UniProtKB/TrEMBL annotation:
A Gene Ontology biological process term: translation
Encoding gene per record: rplO
Gene Ontology MF annotations: rRNA binding; structural constituent of ribosome
Keywords: Ribonucleoprotein, Ribosomal protein, RNA-binding, rRNA-binding
Gene Ontology CC terms: cytosolic large ribosomal subunit
Function: Binds to the 23S rRNA.
Record family assignment: Belongs to the universal ribosomal protein uL15 family.
Name this polypeptide is given: Large ribosomal subunit protein uL15
Length: 150
């Protein structure tokens, strides 16, 4: 084709090496014949073995337990503290926050806290940033205290 000719559709052809013949497996010694990519001897060479077959050993999908419920990955796990422990740490009562509880070593940081109703108290607690069970809320409010969850 000369430099001044216009490129025509019938002149187009693939780049050298772009088109490659399909491998015809098992069609003679010259083209992946003989073992045809299956290796030598054995069960998998002779026939197809279904997925999950382990040579007669009890397969993994049968060894694992069936129907055992599930674990909710979004469950909120609270750190619990009882009223008895609160009264022991803060005998005079007053305003108590999660930071105060962490500072005293009663709970770990960066996890939600819930107050449970085991034990008695006469001190007036003002709890901030914690949840409370119904019994704990009743006991704290009976002593003149309050709970806010924010």
């Amino acid at each position: 084709m000369a430099d001044n000719e216009i490129l025509q559709m019938h002149d187009l052809k693939p780049a050298p090496g772009a088109k490659k013949d399909r491998t015809r497996v098992g069609r003679g010694e010259g083209s992946k014949g003989k073992t045809a990519g299956r290796g030598f001897k054995g069960q998998t060479k002779r026939t197809n073995v279904r997925p999950g077959f382990e040579g007669g050993q009890l397969p993994l999908y049968m060894r694992l337990p069936k129907l055992r419920g599930f674990k909710n990955p979004f469950r909120t796990v609270f750190q619990v503290i009882n009223i008895a422990k609160l009264a022991e740490i803060f005998p005079e009562g007053g305003e108590v926050t999660v930071a105060d509880l962490v500072a005293k070593g009663a709970v770990r940081a960066n996890q939600p806290v819930k107050v449970l109703g085991e034990g008695e108290t006469s001190a007036k607690f003002t709890l901030k940033g914690v949840k409370a069970s119904a019994s704990a809320k009743a006991k704290i409010e009976a002593a003149g205290g309050s709970i806010s969850e924010d």
